[in-house]
Amino acid sequence: MTIWDRFLGRPESLAQRNRHDYRTVDISGTWTRTISGSPAYEDAINALSLGPVQVTLHLQQRGEDTRAVAAYVSEQQVGWIATQRGPIESRLASGFLWRDASVDWMTRLDAAGIRPRLQGLLRIAGDPGRRLINIDFPGRNEPRLSAIAKQLINANPAS
Fold this sequence. Notes:
Elements: H1 3-8, E1 23-27, E2 31-36, H2 42-46, E3 51-62, E4 65-73, E5 76-81, H3 87-93, H4 101-111, E6 114-124, E7 131-137, H5 145-154
Parallel strand pairs: 1-6
Antiparallel strand pairs: 2-5, 2-7, 3-4, 3-6, 4-5, 6-7
């Protein structure tokens, strides 16, 4: 928990407490987003078969950014969701300059012990043989992410 989180009264992220009792919830969406990666994730992506994949999102630290959104396929990290939060905003401003709706959404879900699982498509694009994953993310044409988070948090886990 950063000093700004304490100052603003934000709850400690459950990811920071090494929580192991998350429940995975399937989420649909219509906004196509591409998982950004680096050469560090090429082996993980290349080991997957082309076609449909299920991508689970995790809130975790990425360098100086204390609240980044990581993308996993079959418990193997394959990259990150691009957000507007950067190291300066994450460490110093903690939301005063701007807030990324995806990060806020993931922070709320993480605090409730929920990991969203989205439908994705692993395909070849651009450079010969370069693989990337597109996911169907909620947002642009759906209700606001905060409303979606509230529905997921209030939903009965047994249903």
